[in-house]
């Protein structure tokens, strides 16, 4: 069975992630490279494990998490769908079971807010993990923080954690430095992501709780 280890070791995938991130760097987007891939893979897999899902479902969520943004190599617009098409050709080539390939492609193709829906356990975990990765280290050039709200909110986010808080609740907790960005600014740009996260949690039969600087907001 193909695992995240095999995915990480694949030369084509290594290049895809590098080039996808280079593309986004050119158009001024935040980091979407190995760091983001690893974090989303880890959080998506851990979420399903902690919720008691089958170990293989958690492994497939890890793989979907690692590969979800490779489609940026084709174009940022519709990048989720591009990622899915690449997955559909690449994973069978690596010898992955075709039902599993389809599970990964479905999740990857539906991860982007406004262009997809939580359509499986793997997909819901991927959406929650992806939207949770707001972090100052993703800002490529701190000079842009003064005039780019997106960079400013990311730069203000000193820490983010995605946890199963209790039997009914998935919690995203973010630490924002109010000297850099206000909580209002966070909502201004991340409202759609939070709505997607709530829908994903609902798919997993859980409530979604957002906590900013220790204050429960939902
Ligand atoms: Fe994405
Ligand atoms: Fe992403």
> Strand arrangement, largest sheet?
1-2-3-4
Our estimate of the beta-strand percent is 5-15%
Count of extended strands: 4
Instruction: Assign a percent range to the helix content.
Output: 55-70%
CATH first level: Mainly Alpha
CATH-defined architecture: Orthogonal Bundle
pLDDT < 50 runs, ≥5 residues:
none
Whole-angstrom Rg: 17 Å
Give the structural class: alpha+beta
Number of helices: 9
Give the CA-CA distance, first to last residue.
40 Å
Summarize the structure.
This protein is an alpha+beta fold and 218 residues long. It has a single domain, classed as Hypothetical protein af1432 (Orthogonal Bundle), CATH 1.10.3210. The protein has 9 helices and 4 strands; from the N terminus they run H-H-H-H-H-H-H-H-E-E-H-E-E.
How would you describe the overall organization of this protein?
- The chain is an alpha+beta fold and 218 residues long.
- It has one domain: Hypothetical protein af1432, CATH 1.10.3210.
- Helices cover 55% and strands 12% of the residues.
- It contains nine helices and four strands.
- Strands 1-2-3-4 form a four-stranded mixed sheet.
- The structure holds fe (ii) ion (2 copies).
- Residues 68-69, 79-80, 111-112 line the site of one fe (ii) ion (FE2).
């Amino acid at each position: 069975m193909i695992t995240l280890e095999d995915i990480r070791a694949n030369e084509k995938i290594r290049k895809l992630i590098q080039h996808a991130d280079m593309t986004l760097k050119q158009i001024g987007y935040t980091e979407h490279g190995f760091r983001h891939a690893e974090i989303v893979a880890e959080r998506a897999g851990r979420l399903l494990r902690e919720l008691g899902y089958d170990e293989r479902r958690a492994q497939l969520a890890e793989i979907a998490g690692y590969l979800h943004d490779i489609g940026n190599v084709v174009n940022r617009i519709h990048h989720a769908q591009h990622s899915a098409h690449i997955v559909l050709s690449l994973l069978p080539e690596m010898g992955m079971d075709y039902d599993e390939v389809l599970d990964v492609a479905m999740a990857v193709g539906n991860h982007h807010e406004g262009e997809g829906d939580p359509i499986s356990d793997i997909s819901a975990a991927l959406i929650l993990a992806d939207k949770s990765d707001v972090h100052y280290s993703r800002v490529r050039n701190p000079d842009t923080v003064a005039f780019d709200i997106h960079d400013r909110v990311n730069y203000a986010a000193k820490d983010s954690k995605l946890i199963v808080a209790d039997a009914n609740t998935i919690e995203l907790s973010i630490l924002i430095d109010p000297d850099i960005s206000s909580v209002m600014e966070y909502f201004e740009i991340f409202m759609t992501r939070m709505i997607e996260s709530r829908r994903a949690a609902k798919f997993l039969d859980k409530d979604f709780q957002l906590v900013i600087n220790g204050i429960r907001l939902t």
